[in-house]
Design goal:
This protein is α/β, with parallel strands linked by helices. It contains 21 helices and 20 strands. The longest helix is centred in the last third of the chain and has 20 residues, at 522-541.
Length: 576
Amino acid sequence: MQISEFLNSLKKNKSDKGAQEPAEPPAEPEKTVGGGDEKKTPAPKVKKPDAGFIHYFQLLKGIKNPVVDEYDFERDGTLVEVNVDDTYEQIDQYWVTNGCSLIIIALNKKTNQQEYLLFEPSLSDFEYELLERLYEDLRCVLILSSKDIKKDRKQVLLEKMNELFNDYGITLTRSARHKIQYFLVRNFLGWSRIDPLMKDPNLEDISCDGNKVPIFLYHRHYRNIRTNIAFEPDILNSLAITLAQRSGKHISSGSPIIDATLPDGSRLQLTFGSEVTTRGTSFTIRKFREEPFSPVELIEIGTFNADVLAYFWMAIENNKSLLFIGGTASGKTTSLNAVSLFIPPIAKVVSIEDTREITLFHDNWIASVTREALSEGSNAITMFDLLRAAMRQRPEYILVGEVRGAEAQTLFQAMNTGHTTFSTMHAGGVDAAIHRLESEPLNVPRNMVQALNIISVQGLIFHGTERVRRVQEVVEIAGIDPSSGNMRVNNVFVYDPIHDKINFTGRSQIYTDIAEKRGWTREQLEADIATRKNLLEEMRKQGIKDYVSVASLFHAYSIDAKEVIANISDLRMVIQ
């Protein structure tokens, strides 16, 4: 007897005008599943009513939920059976979820390319049909009581699963039960088949190009890599709708394109159906870390050195405007977010984005995002609208996620009226950035561009065989040449690709201006720069690099620099 027939037999319950004696069921065996073993036990003498009704009566009677036996890797061992084809040569492997999601990086000998192979628990036919039946019945019994609302969602789901197992009268081996637990949690609370990819900290981008097309990834160590995961059209469409709904957006054939932010902060671009993307539904997820990079972490990975960050620190503290430029995935937003931790602790900050990416450890911060028109006749809220509103909020610092349209003129007007602004823009270099600012659709006049103080050029480059993110140059805008009308610039830091170093040229108009306004001598300026560099290096040596601790130390330095310097040998004393 198939599992579907067996479970359906449990649902049959005769009901007439009066109560009747239950009929004897056919003499079919009850099954015990797991590891391929199967044994016969006496069949139940009484037919069981529908699972949903039993659960309803349990709620009325206050029956205690069965104890959930959760999977433990150390105790239960792995649930994954790995079978790598002979055409692959294994390079690396690691767990995403211990015992349940195994990643193997392997070289495909036929194509001579590396591939990302995902292995999850395998199900027998009986387990698979049981899992499908659980999906159906859980929709009926997932009725939250007042006690369930206070519980963890995973705990509630597993308790309901146990109740259904009792209703079915099926006894499962521990291994089979844990496999089904994994898939229920993955599909109800996680992201279905891509859940291991979302949990893999080594991934930056997840790209699905269409129906039955393998998913491609950008891996932090292996760069662009193909996976063994592909979707049928109906499953892919269902996943797309789930992604959109969890992002708080609607997608359909009528409005098939959305840009959104997932609950974990990752950036989603999604197209639905085959009208816009002819190979079928497609999506790209740009993953962001739960905790953003701090300046100390950027020193560790070589994006900046202490000299550059001390320069940014002094510039931001003295209200200089910055623009980070570069190509796709060059680290513009990451750098913007990191240097924003240098903002003084009480200063008012307003951030403006179309998809939320900026994360600050700052109390006096208004985080605003754009909004599409909710219905016909309602108004969309654009970046221009948000920037115009921000000007009335008297901010000291304005952070704009990316400049790409009419908001550029308002942004530069804000710079010219004394507001300190940080932003990012796609451009290959300083000349390209200035030309883009002056052209359609930004149309910023050249005499307004000179209000910008610093441009940092970011790049995703090769260092040997490894792709790394480095600052290419830091340039100061020194005004307009009155004779030629061209923009004058001053290179402050320049990257040396041969030695993988960032060198200070020895010339900085920003440092000179700060010294003049503060009444410092050259020696006092150099001493302050050296103190900040030393503090950054000590934080790196002492392992203080998470963005909350780093921001707390910067805030403490802004309030009482002498106390921080007095405890420089043990900086954790300052933030305890």
